[in-house]
Amino acid sequence: MNTTSDHKSASRPATSPGAALLVGALGVVYGDIGTSPLYAIRASLSSFAVLDTEHILGVLSILFWMLILVVSLKYVALMLRADNRGEGGTLALMELAVRGIAGGRRWTLTILGLIGACLFYGDSIITPAISVLSAVEGISIVSHTLDEWVVPFSVLIIACLFAIQSRGTGAMGKLFGPIMLFWFLALGVLGGWHIAQAPQVLQALNPWWAYTFISHAPLDTFLLLGAVVLALTGAETLYADMGHFGRSAIRRAWFGLVLPSLVLCYFGQGALLLGDPAAIRNPFFLMAPGWALAPLVGLATVATIIASQAVISGAFSVTRQAVQLGFWPRMAILHTSAKEEGQIYLPRVNLLLCVAVIVLVVGFGSSDRLTHTYGFAVTGTMLMTSLLAFHVLPRRAHGVRRVLWMALLSVFLLLDILLFASNTLKVGDGGWLPLAVGISLLTLMVTWKQGRQRIHEALADGQPPLREFMEGIEAYPPTRVPGTAVFMSMIVNTVPPALLHNLKHNKVLHEQVIFLTVQSADVPYVSFSERFKLEKLSRGSWQVTARWGFKQEPNVPQLLEQLGQEHPELNLEPMQTSFYLSRQSIIVVRKVPLYLRWRRSLFAFMARNASRSTRFYKIPPNRVVEMGMQVEL
Fold first, then answer.
1. Residues 602, 604, 605, 609: what is their CA dihedral angle, to the nearest 10 degrees?
2. Where are the domains of the chain?
3. Mean pLDDT in the chain?
4. Is 533 helix (H, G, I), strand (E, B) or coil?
């Protein structure tokens, strides 16, 4: 038997992470939040007509305590506890929230999870654009004659980044950790150097400065949150990548290096601005001495490429989860590593992301303009995470601890609402972009899910139970032919259309008949020992229900190999086994009203462009018989 069944449990990081694991976490988990110093301070303070000490210290204090409350406490300390068998992320949390819940409440929680996932796609588009642009803009500090080359260089870098996705991240990943380690050390050294020259900036560690700023200008503070949130981008990645590195490695890397380096860098920029307010035009690069400016631009560019790689890989992973959970059509998923199941490449998603990112870079032209688009997607995903956490974390505690969970989550929910509300004011300035992406993708996901449900209901309508049907055939058996027929069935205990067509046109039945239904579990990984359930229907027929986790890909030939080993009475020799599938053609009824027809037409379009079942389930094409049928909607 294939021993890769328990890949996840076998490869899960140990409780006490080693140095290699910590460095690896730096390269994958912290790329996004690690590049925020490139633009967060500039975006937060550039709106003030006159920069004085109160403004600088007040904003720094707010930014510091937001890092502590939102990232350190909410995500690193609490959300990492909301794991789905070691996996994190919006869709994993959604599956935890809806477990054991039915009806309208289940659908509401599902929609919240889908909204978070859809907004993540907006983040996946904006992060490469704003990160690469903000890094390349450093050449303007080197020489203003290079200003006109910022956009072309950015487009070139982004095009190369997406072009190499098909080669996989394995080779590049070995370099990501050490580079990001050097990046965070550089942030800390630059920031510490300027803090030493203006140590009074450390007063911002006192929350009194944040309180004073808020009390004197509550409306300005509310508007300021839309920029301060740029320092929190990437917090969701800490939770989403928990399954790759484990909560211990993520926590140690955050508190041991990332948080201190970020704070030093932010306060170093504040120290620079206390002495030279004019440096607000680009405080990050102006922290560097002249001789280090060009190397810093190069290092920042590499760091932003790593940050972009992280969200691109995240988009691939989220898409695969959506496909497995039935919210997205089947599509080609290519593995770029023979050892790591998580390293995948989706050609369609890669192309669409590449086009969208390049359009953003050319359309907006600068990182300052793109900052208005950024916060909406990030804060929207954070808000959905908090709402779902209300239905997960308190259920794991009782009594006083349950009350404490509710109180803590209420505080974080309030913060998320404030951050999200502040960013809604930027919808007209660019926030409409992630909003439009989110609404479009949510419409597609819901349309696909509901359309598939309608297809299932149409196929099951009026059909007798499968066991009853097969027992009836045994009473008046057709001609039996040697071998085994595997009928892929979408619904358990339902007669698949392919069987009816085979009996009607060929008038034969194989000696052994297996009805195989593939289902997606609400956990990320299902071991081989839990892979299938076998039930005998009649003398020569069996029902097999197979389950894969939402981070695994179904492999039907591998399943049949396991089935044959555990049940030798079944004849599952590859050359004697044929697969029968139904391929539905969706016909949209013209008589229905237009407001119903457009969604049905959209579903039909998605169905026509879905990948073939044979490729998705790894079934050899030369052993497949497809039966075509039309379904009216």
1. 140
2. 27-450, 462-632
3. 87
4. strand
Type of residue at 259 = L
Q: Spell out the residues 6+ positions from residue 170 whose beta carbon is closer than 8 angstroms to its own.
A: 336, 337, 340, 343
DSSP letter string over 59-97? HHHHHHHHIIIIIIIIIIIIGGGS-BTTB-SHHHHHHHH
pLDDT of residue 547: 93
Q: Residue 266's closest CA among 328, 202, 223, 331?
A: 202
Res. 10 pLDDT band, cuts 50 70 90 = very low
Query: How are the residues of the chain apportioned to helix, strand and coil, as percentages rounded to the nearest 5?
Result: 70, 10, 20
For 415, the token pair is 């913060």
Torsion on CA atoms 120, 125, 131, 137, rounded to nearest 10: -150
Please give the structure tokens belonging to residue 260: 């201190």
Residue 154 is predicted with a pLDDT of 92
Classify 100 as helix, strand or coil: coil
Q: What is the CATH number of domain 27-450?
A: 1.20.1740.10
Tell me the torsion sign for CA atoms 79, 80, 84, 87: positive
Question: Coil, helix or strand for 538?
Answer: strand
- Cα torsion angle, 170, 174, 177, 179, sign: negative
